[in-house]
DNA sequence: AACCCAATGTGATAAATGTTACTGTCCCTT
DNA sequence: AAGGGACAGTAACATTTATCACATTGGGTT
């Protein structure tokens, strides 16, 4: 029933795959589970083999600002970075689609860096791609107004789900962009008038 | 005349210091120099031994959004991340105080990860601290209004210069926060009325 | 069908931020 | 000393975003 690890992480060496299989534990979580909260200590590095996780930055007032998705074949960069020093998490991770994850203890994460070239490259590439993604998020809030940010948001969700119909409420979008529902409803209406989307109840169809 | 490398990078092993001294080149740049532009290919990892560098994210419209400072004992995380794949720079780096930097070729940056534990730890710690700093920047723009962002900005500049008198124009602050001078002038005036700062020409004195 | 409730639409208004225009001040250069 | 230019103060107005109030819609439940 399980997809072989080699398929999900094609760049991992066979030795690394063996090491993972004999040392790491696989766990499953249902949609809605909070995998990690801001401030919690990180004890494992997390690899995703199935499902989807959303990463948020939490505001002091309870805001949940959407940062990025984690998907199969990816790892949580924060858990890698913090793992080496057992630091506190700076982010919140929420399961949005039932996931299977591989938990790798801190000590191994560090040890494998020296032993497995393919692990080293995977970690570095994870850092790089997440850093870039976060920089794009900075762009979107630093330079753009809400209508452009909304389009950016929708595009990223479309890319993540691989479909054109997003099942998401205006309220949820508003929360994740740290604005209010009314603003999102109005901007979506304008986008509909421009022919960019088609609005249905609990669903946004992306036309372009 | 040179401060020994060991003083600036106390955690580097003696072997690593020797490797740096025999392989890397030291260069000096004057204040105002653009060390790296967005889109340029990165050929070296940069360590700072003297002076200060500011890192910006550039907007399409020419905006220069301030991200963080680089100071002696630190390295450019982007140059490390991108170095391994010779990627394009996602940021712009401007010298703000005459600097001396050590340029480390791509190949060595990567090679040393395996050979020198202290280099490995330095690189990982650089990633971690920069990632955290960028997340704080995200916070400031995602959750806070301009007056709080201004206070955050001033605090970071105070920390970087280690003094309470910032020599900076309102226009420069406005550019680096991607807003307009008038807004900054107004907010600074309010801060002065609240007793947080004292305003002089080309200088802002931080009182608290 | 009658009802409930979450989701959405929309107008009115407030607050924050951006823009324009103009003034004054200080410093440097000539 | 006179002129020019960068810097700063401020008023008036425009735009964007946030907030409040309330209406409407549609799906599910009883």
From TrEMBL, chains A, B:
Listed A to Z, the keywords are: DNA-binding, Transcription, Transcription regulation
- The answer to whether keyword Cell cycle applies is no
This chain's source organism reads Flavobacterium shii
InterPro entries in the record: cNMP-bd_dom, cNMP-bd_dom_sf, HTH_CRP, RmlC-like_jellyroll, WH-like_DNA-bd_sf, WH_DNA-bd_sf
Q: Name one GO biological process term.
A: regulation of DNA-templated transcription
Where the record annotates domain HTH crp-type, the positions are 144-208
Its Gene Ontology molecular function terms?
DNA binding
Recorded protein name is Crp/Fnr family transcriptional regulator
Q: Which residue range or ranges hold the Cyclic nucleotide-binding domain? A: 8-74
Specify the superkingdom.
Bacteria
Specify whether Transcription is a keyword of the entry: yes
Q: Which SMART domains match?
A: HTH_CRP
């Amino acid at each position: 029933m399980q997809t072989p690890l080699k398929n999900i992480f094609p760049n991992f060496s066979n030795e690394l795959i063996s090491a993972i299989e004999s040392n790491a534990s696989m766990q499953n979580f249902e949609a809605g589970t909070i995998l990690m909260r801001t401030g919690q200590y990180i004890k494992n590095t997390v690899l995703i083999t199935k499902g989807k996780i959303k990463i948020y930055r939490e505001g002091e007032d309870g805001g949940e600002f959407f940062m990025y998705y984690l998907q199969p074949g990816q790892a949580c960069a924060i858990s890698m970075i913090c793992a080496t020093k057992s630091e506190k998490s700076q982010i919140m991770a929420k399961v949005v689609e039932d996931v299977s994850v591989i938990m790798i203890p801190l000590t191994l994460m560090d040890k494998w860096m020296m032993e497995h070239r393919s692990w080293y490259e995977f970690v570095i590439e994870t850092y790089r791609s997440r850093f870039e993604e976060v920089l794009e998020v900075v762009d979107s809030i630093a330079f753009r107004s809400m209508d452009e940010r909304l389009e950016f948001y929708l595009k990223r969700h479309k890319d993540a789900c691989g479909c054109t119909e997003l099942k998401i409420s205006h309220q949820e979008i508003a929360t994740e962009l740290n604005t209010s529902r009314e603003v999102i409803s109005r901007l979506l209406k304008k986008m509909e008038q421009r022919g960019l989307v088609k609005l249905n109840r609990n669903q946004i169809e992306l036309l372009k």
